[in-house]
TrEMBL record, chain A:
<feature type="region of interest" description="Disordered">
    <location>
        <begin position="1"/>
        <end position="20"/>
    </location>
</feature>
<feature type="domain" description="Oxidoreductase molybdopterin-binding">
    <location>
        <begin position="37"/>
        <end position="181"/>
    </location>
</feature>
<dbReference type="Pfam" id="PF00174">
    <property type="entry name" value="Oxidored_molyb"/>
</dbReference>
<dbReference type="InterPro" id="IPR000572">
    <property type="entry name" value="OxRdtase_Mopterin-bd_dom"/>
</dbReference>
<dbReference type="InterPro" id="IPR036374">
    <property type="entry name" value="OxRdtase_Mopterin-bd_sf"/>
</dbReference>
<protein>
    <submittedName>
        <fullName>Molybdopterin-binding protein</fullName>
    </submittedName>
</protein>
UniProtKB/TrEMBL annotation, chain B:
<keyword id="KW-0411">Iron-sulfur</keyword>
<keyword id="KW-0408">Iron</keyword>
<dbReference type="InterPro" id="IPR017927">
    <property type="entry name" value="FAD-bd_FR_type"/>
</dbReference>
<protein>
    <submittedName>
        <fullName>Oxidoreductase</fullName>
    </submittedName>
</protein>
<dbReference type="InterPro" id="IPR050415">
    <property type="entry name" value="MRET"/>
</dbReference>
<keyword id="KW-0479">Metal-binding</keyword>
<dbReference type="GO" id="GO:0016491">
    <property type="term" value="F:oxidoreductase activity"/>
</dbReference>
<dbReference type="InterPro" id="IPR008333">
    <property type="entry name" value="Cbr1-like_FAD-bd_dom"/>
</dbReference>
<dbReference type="InterPro" id="IPR017938">
    <property type="entry name" value="Riboflavin_synthase-like_b-brl"/>
</dbReference>
Length: 201, 256
């Protein structure tokens, strides 16, 4: 251990919800996207699933809203070290979209892509079983553009760069294919509890 | 058989911003190294530059950042990202410039406790998308400590005597808060938002600041780099789009 002389740090909080190396950002919700926030209205928003599926499909805003509502209440964790507790997102479980297209047995991974062209890769297992959403509400209100509105992917058990803002689609693959940050040295899975920040962690 | 592969065929309505500029070494990013503080230089009442010896530093490109970690006696750690302020060199030194954030855990330690000889840990360099190798004409826009990665670009261009066009628009509340004030040359236009030197205009970065830069558009256009708080990044990137800068040539580093 390399102790830093004179550094004591903040009062220790015994918070079992805080993954290693993270701190509680409180009411702050930092924005860290690398691109210009797009001017995307709900009417222009679409969400597509293609690749290794029986029936590729594209949903518009209204169509997507006919699927059963589902909410996430819990915590989110950003690789830049902040975590945010007790957030509330509303939208639709990704399972509902995946059921509609019929996932091929050979699919193992997905590339999520945004309306800006941003991409991120995920194991399919992280997107199914009630652990991922397409979210369009935050705290009961429409999701703000800088946070990914009209709709973003939400995969709260992984670092938040996996939760692609301005989500446009998923391509299902039989192999892993690094996305934007993953090509820039970030970890292929990004599990905050294992502190998988950078490739090789 | 149904569909086989599977690369995204989607064409975004807005073209993609920020394709990565350089490949990042995954090996150097994974290793924590000891960085020994060798010098502290005051820049403004709220910002200071910290110079470190990192003997095995793998080198970096202007615009990249590192992760820095402080460890307390009981094993508690705090880690934050900091942009590299220094131009790449082969001397095994890097410089960071930190704002003193009120109540800040890491910047507070640097501004109140740190002294030469202290050791911290760093890993990096990280992230290739904001890097500027010195190849394309660069339009740099920063506010506050957001000027740090941009200064690395200005210094790199000078150190290598590159003749590729480069412009820096840097926003600060007043002259005494302008980081690196003594180092700027003809490439830089300071924008003062609250107080200016006698006779100088005071106000927010606006379309009028960008107009002359776009009137002298270099061959192939500008590669734009924007850095600062999220609010500043949103404002500056909107101005750039309005001035005709393609969105896929605007790279944004938000300090969160
Ligand atoms: C890519 C990148 C590059 C960056 N480059 C630079 C740079 O070159 N220079 C620079 O100065 N900064 C830079 N930053 C910002 C830097 O990473 C830190 O966020 C900044 O230094 C503040 O950290 P801190 O530990 O001092 O403050 P923190 O302790 O994180 O506090 C930040 C604010 O939140 C409040 N706060 C947070 N947690 C608590 C808590 N538990 N209780 C009470 N209050 C709390 C603090 O009071 C303070 O107002 C960069 C950020 C990124 C993402």
């Amino acid at each position: 251990m390399n102790v830093t002389r004179g550094f004591t740090g903040r009062a220790r909080v015994d918070n079992p919800g805080l993954p290693p190396g993270q701190y509680d950002a409180g009411d702050d919700w930092p924005v860290l996207s690398a691109e210009v926030t797009p001017d995307l209205s709900p009417a222009d928003w679409t969400f597509r699933i293609d690749g290794l599926v029986r029936e590729p499909r594209t949903w518009g805003w209204d169509e997507a809203h006919t699927l059963p509502e589902s909410a996430y209440e819990g915590d989110i964790h950003c690789v830049t070290s902040w975590s945010k507790f007790g957030v509330r997102f509303g939208g639709v479980s990704l399972d509902a979209f995946l059921d509609a297209v019929g996932v091929h047995a050979s699919a193992t991974h997905a590339v999520a892509y945004a309306h800006t062209g941003y991409t991120t890769n995920l194991p399919l297992a992280d997107l199914t079983g009630g652990r991922a959403w397409i979210a369009w509400e935050y705290d009961g209100k429409p999701l703000a553009a800088e946070h990914g509105g009209p709709a973003r992917l939400l995969v709260p058990h992984l670092y938040f760069w996996k939760s692609a803002k301005w989500i446009a689609g998923l391509s299902l693959l039989d192999h892993d294919e690094p996305g934007f940050w993953e090509q820039n040295g970030y970890h292929e899975r990004g599990n905050p509890w294992e502190e998988q920040r950078y490739s090789g962690d | 058989m149904t569909e086989t592969t599977a690369s995204p065929v989607f064409v975004p309505p807005t073209r993609f911003a920020v394709p990565g500029r350089i490949a990042v070494s995954n090996r150097t990013a994974a290793v924590w190294q000891t960085a020994t503080l060798t010098e502290i230089r005051r820049e403004t009442p709220h910002a200071a530059t910290f110079r470190f010896a990192v003997p095995a530093w793998a080198g970096h490109l202007p615009g990249q950042h590192l992760m820095l970690r402080l460890t307390a006696g009981d094993g508690y750690t705090a880690q934050r990202h900091y942009s590299l302020a220094s131009a790449p060199d082969d001397e095994g030194h890097v410089e960071l410039t930190l704002d003193h954030v009120e109540g800040g855990e890491v910047s507070g330690w640097f501004h109140t406790r740190a002294r030469p000889g202290d050791r911290v840990e760093v890993r990096g360099p990280l992230s290739g998308f904001f890097a500027w190798p010195g190849d394309r004409p660069a339009l740099l826009i920063g506010a506050g400590s957001g000027v740090v990665p941009l200064m690395s670009m200005v210094r790199h261009r000078r150190a290598r005597a590159l003749d590729v066009p480069l412009r820096l628009l840097v926003s600060a509340r007043g002259p005494e808060e302008l980081i690196y004030a003594r180092e700027y040359g003809a490439e830089t236009t300071p924008v003062f938002t609250r107080r200016g030197p006698a006779g100088a205009p005071v106000g927010r970065l606006g379309a009028a600041h960008l107009r002359p830069v776009f009137e002298e558009l270099p061959a192939g256009g500008w590669e734009a780099y924007v850095c600062g708080s999220n609010a500043f990044a949103e404002h500056a990137s909107r101005l750039l789009v309005a001035a005709g800068q393609p969105v896929d040539r605007i790279r944004i580093e938000r300090f969160g």
